[in-house]
Design goal:
By secondary structure, this protein is mainly beta. The protein contains 1 helix and 11 strands.
């Protein structure tokens, strides 16, 4: 997803293999991801999307004063604090459970989209099972009649 404050910016969904860069967008203080070569288009991640950074991840504390580093390069996209409107929800979860808001990432970090979340399985219509059972019984009946 793209955080609420990026809704007025052109966006597209992430694809496996995308190479993205952490960035700030014009007219927004929120940071997010853009595709390399498309700096004005926010690339939106679905919850569960797995990404890999080129190197250890750098981010800023809540107030943007101190730079910190996570010694790890793989993360899973999550949305947190969904019950709190008008706050940042887009976060990355690292092995060990540490979460960092996407808007706190240092600019200029490159990531590759490794995997998108599995699509939910569509449930079969109720009549489909009955229809197949009827076909099997008709086939059995034809076989006995021959």
């Amino acid at each position: 997803m793209c955080d609420y404050s990026l809704q007025h910016i052109a966006s597209r969904p992430a694809k496996v293999g995308d190479i993205l860069v952490s960035t700030s967008f014009s007219n927004s203080s929120t940071r997010g991801f853009a595709a390399v070569g498309e700096p004005n288009v926010a690339v939106c991640l679905l919850p569960g999307t797995e990404i890999a950074f080129e190197r250890d991840v750098e981010y800023h504390d809540t107030f943007g004063l101190f730079s910190r580093k996570i010694h790890g390069q793989v993360a899973r996209f999550r949305q947190i604090d969904m019950d709190k409107p008008h706050t940042h929800h887009d976060a990355l979860e690292f092995p060990g459970g540490r979460r960092v808001l996407v808007t706190h990432l240092s600019k200029g970090q490159h990531v590759t989209v490794l995997q998108l979340p599995a699509a939910p399985r569509a449930e079969k219509p109720a009549g489909e099972h009955t229809h197949r059972a009827e076909e099997r019984s008709r086939i059995s009946f034809v076989a006995w009649s021959s």
